[in-house]
Amino acid sequence: MSAPRRTPLRRTPLRRTPLLGPGSWTETRRIADILRQETIGGALLLVAALAALVWANSPWSAGYETLRSVRVGPGALHLDLSLATWAADGLLAIFFFVAGLELKREFVAGDLRDPRRAAVPVVAAVGGVVVPALLYLLVNTLLNPGMDGALRGWAVPTATDIAFALAVLAVVGRNLPSALRTFLLTLAVVDDLLAIAIIAVFYTSHLAPLPLLAALLPLGLFAVLVRRGVRAWWLLAPLAAVTWALVHASGVHATVAGVLLAFTVPVHRATGDATGKGPGEGAGESSGEGAGPAEHFEHRFRPLSAGVAVPLFAFLSAGVALGGPGGLPGLLTDGVPLGVVAGLVAGKPLGITAATWLVARFTRADIDDGLAWVDIVGVAILSGIGFTVSLLIGELAFGAGPTWDGQVKVAVLTGSLAAALLATVILRLRDRVYRRIAETEARAEAEARAAAAPTG
Questions:
Q1: Where does the pLDDT of residue 8 fall: very low under 50, low under 70, confident under 90, or very high at 90 and above?
Q2: Spatial distance between the Cα atoms of 390 and 318, rounded to a whole number of angstroms
Q3: What are 220-263's pLDDT values in tens digits?
Q4: CA distance 40 to 91
Q5: Which phi and psi (to 5°) does residue 350 adopt?
Q6: Which residue stretches belong to region Disordered (predicted)?
Q7: Pick from 376, 375, 378, 390: nearest CA to 344
Q8: Helix (H/G/I), strand (E/B), else coil: 101
């Protein structure tokens, strides 16, 4: 008796996860609000940097250096710092505080709380740090053999300046799909966190453990208060200032204090907190809705960061004599500026694109409908704009004044400008595609608004 025939099993094709799919409507709207504020800050940043360059290359350039070196602050607390140091250590602490809040918000209550979504920008950011650093080291090993001091600048081309990048987008990429904008923003925020870790680990020349341990006390009190719902600035600001001062005294770069303070702020609103909400209110916070403490502080401090702190830092850091010994003549002959330009223009897009491709390869993810790999390449090139944090790391690596410091500043400006121009060409060529996607997203948003609107 023959065996019964079996019906062959049909393999159901696996539904591939979108690599850069659009996020939820609530998250997309929140990201759009952030991008609008950062775009304004980027415009102010460009104006401040241009003003510094003009002044530093004018007949009155001595006045610019005099302004940078003016010392203010209480000497008894060893805080009589120059204005340039206050900008790098103090103002950028505000910038990193906002970046820390945004990163925590994304991973706790945003769309990136899904590990599959988070993997793409996180791995891409790591690739965008590792490859530029390796390329810088390769260039300087070949051109500056035996000069260990030149290798200290390996981290300069690893940073992405989100404000500068979004200022470029405001001009040439108005129709950029929300998926790519979110990818760029999250990539830059993770990049900032990696940069602050690099600063803390590799650019701490001396460490005083006692002030660092003492900083835990005001940091802990700050954490307790914000978790209890306290938002009074007159109570929180002194604790934040003391934390910053103790971290500064420890030898760790003071901007680390901004990230530490941000990570203590809870994302979700506590039940019955000091904002006046009762036990039953704010229940939606568990799903990421409502203004929790992190969102509250981010809303308050982002304008201060983008509109004041970062432009002032740029104004006090970007001024360099282009025709001097540390200027344009050294760009084509020395490994340090060449490594910085190569890292920003080639290393960043290569690292980000390769890392993103690896995620797609090993997670069976597809690019969202309408997008192509050239779009990821365009955003990756745009990530080579590494202005603010690159200048900061350059000053930490080489100090202020030596030839390399001037060359690094010119190289950062040159590399960032080249990355902006290359990204502009790619994004403009794809603008027709982006416009069609934008129209589709606008219809989807209108449908989401209509569905969310109360009936009756």
A1: very low
A2: 11
A3: 999 999 999 888 989 999 999 999 999 999 988 888 999 999 99
A4: 18
A5: -65, -45
A6: 272-293
A7: 390
A8: helix
Contacts 24+ apart (CB under 8 A), 82-87: 83/316, 84/316, 84/317, 84/400, 87/312, 87/313, 87/316, 87/317
Only one residue has tokens 């791995």, namely 123
Residues in the chain: 456
User: Rounded CA gap, 219 and 239, in Å?
Assistant: 7
> How far is Cα 293 from Cα 277, in angstroms, rounded to an integer?
13
Q: Would the pTM of this model clear 0.85, i.e. be above it?
A: no
Report how far residue 319's alpha carbon sits from residue 321's, in angstroms, rounded to the nearest whole number: 7
- The percent of residues in the chain predicted with pLDDT above 90, rounded, is 32
CB 419 within 8 A of CB 347: no
> Closest Cα to residue 310, out of 61, 156, 103, 96?
96
Exposure string (b/e) for 197-209, b if CB count within 10 Å is 16 or more?
Answer: ebbbeebeeeeee
- Lowest mean pLDDT of 87-101, 285-299, 326-340, 419-433, name the range: 285-299
End-to-end CA distance of the chain: 70
